[in-house]
Specification:
- There is one protein chain.
- This protein is α/β, with parallel strands linked by helices and 280 residues long.
- It is 25% helix and 26% strand.
- The strands form 2 sheets. A 7-stranded mixed β-sheet has the order 6-5-4-3-2-1-14.
- The protein is globular and about 55 Å long.
- It starts with a strand and ends with a strand.
Amino acid sequence: MKITVLGSGGFGYPLAFCDCKYCSKARKMGGKNIRKRASILVNDEMIVDLTGDCQTAMNMYGKNMSNVKYLLQTHTHLDHFDINQFTTLDYKYATIRKKSLSLVCSKKCFEDINTKVNLYDNINLKNEDYLKKINCEVKIVNHGELLKLDKYQIKAIHTTHDEKLGAQLYLIKEKNKTLFYATDTPQISDIALRELKNEKIDCIFLDESFGNSDYCFSHLNIKGFVQFVETLKENELLKDNCLIYATHITHDGNPLHEELEKQLKKYSCLVAYDGMEIKL
C-alpha cells in the first residue's frame, strides 16, 4: 500500500490572515512548514477527504486526479470537503471521465453533501440517471459497518467529532496491510474501541490539531494524541512496528516541523508533511 500525503494541516499552516509567531516563521522558512488541508491519497486511486487543496496537491506531486476511483469522505466541514471540486464531475464543466468514482461516506454525511451541491449547483446526487451521466456511484457505510471495494476493505469507525453530520474515521485494508485514518477526532470512544476490536494496524494518521496548547475540543493536542495512541496500544490494536503520524496540524500550539518532530520523537511518533510518500 502506497500512501501520499496531499495535505497535513487543519485550515492550512500558516493560517490565512494570521501573523502569530508560528505563521510568520513558517512563511519565512517554507518547506515542510507549509501545510495544505489534511488529505491523503492511497495507491494513486483513493482520496480520503476532497479538500480545497486536493487538485493543487495532485498536480504538485505528479498525480492524476482522473485516475481517482474512490473518494472516502470523513465529514463535510469546510476544510475537508470542497463543493467546487466535487461539482466539476458535472458534464456542464466539459469533464471527460473514463473511470467511475465511488463516493463513500455515512448516510448523514451524504445527506449534507447532497444538500450543499444542490444549493451550489442544482445537483441531485439521489437521482440515479444523473449519477450515471457523471459516472459516479454512492456507497453508504455508517460507523461499525464494512464495505468491500474491489481489492480494499473499508471499515467506518465512530468518532464524536460531529455526530450530527455523520463524521467518521476509516480503516483501509489491502491484502495484509491496515491503515487507520483518524482525523478529525477527540479521544477515542468506547464505541470505536469495540469497532476496532481484534484489528492490527500497520499505520495510523492521527489528529494532532492543538500541539502544546492545554486545551483540546473535538480534536487532539499533543497530550491527547499520546493518550489516544496509548489507548490503542493497551487494547493491542497496533502492530509492533506500527507507523504513527501526526496530521491535521494547526498553528494553534504547534511549533514548526523540525521542533514538532523532536517533541513527538520522545513518544516514538512521527510528523506527516505535505508530499510525503510511504509504502507499507
